[in-house]
Write a structure and sequence with these properties.
Elements (H helix, E strand, L loop, with lengths): L2 E4 L3 E5 L16 H11 L7 E6 L9 H7 L18 H7 L4 E4 L7 H7 L4 E7 L1 H14 L3 E10 L3 H12 L5 E4 L5 E4 L2
Parallel strand pairs: 1-8, 2-3, 2-5, 3-4, 5-6, 6-7
Helix pairs in contact: 5-6
Length: 191
């Protein structure tokens, strides 16, 4: 089933970073699939792509204090290579001057992302992890009036089951949030 998105839609590639790969305690098992799916979508969103990065706050507050007590490896400055975008996204961001929004929160919807995409944009979300940062971004953006499309094969969760549960949750928010199974089902209306 094809899903059409307007020509002014923004691709928001969520947290395609080193910290979610390899031997990291936060490694996402199907990270490579999410990265490949995002990579296939980049040409359709030239000039309308935003990368996001999750980083630790300099001084955790509130519920983040016990969170980082559990994950102390992540308490490094945001310039640490742990939080770098992975290839090819770091190169794309640098060479094409693609905006990168960095937040110490799971959800990336907020004033920084809004400053790039506008108040009521159409967002096409990809990245990791479906069951954490993607769903947190999707729900907050939809609540703020953004139209959200999530591309399932360009996302990955902490597990396949968690990925599927997060997609099922986001489907409950239709028509504010639409989930498409494959990036190939997405049609960008360039008319």
């Amino acid at each position: 089933m094809s899903v059409e998105v307007p020509a002014d839609a923004w691709l928001v590639a969520i947290d395609l970073q080193q910290v979610f790969t390899g031997d990291s305690p936060w490694a996402t098992p199907r990270y490579a699939d999410a990265a490949a799916g995002t990579g296939r979508l980049l040409p359709q969103f030239a000039g309308r792509t935003v990368f996001t990065r999750f980083v630790a706050p300099e001084h955790p507050q509130g519920a983040w204090v016990p969170y980082y007590r559990e994950w102390p490896f992540a308490l490094v400055p945001d310039a640490d290579p742990l939080y770098d975008l992975t290839a090819p996204f770091a190169t794309v961001a640098a060479e094409r001057r693609t905006p990168v929004v960095t937040e110490p929160t799971f959800g990336k919807w907020g004033t920084s992302l809004q400053a790039v995409v506008g108040d009521h944009p159409h967002l096409v979300l990809t990245g990791v992890s479906t069951d954490c940062c993607v769903v947190s971004t999707a729900l907050a953006a939809a609540d703020a009036g953004a139209t959200v499309t999530v591309v399932a094969d360009a996302c990955a969760g902490a597990s396949d089951d968690d990925h599927e549960r997060a997609l099922a949750l986001m489907r409950l928010y239709g028509p504010l949030i639409t989930v498409v199974d494959r990036g190939s089902d997405l049609v960008v209306d360039h008319v």
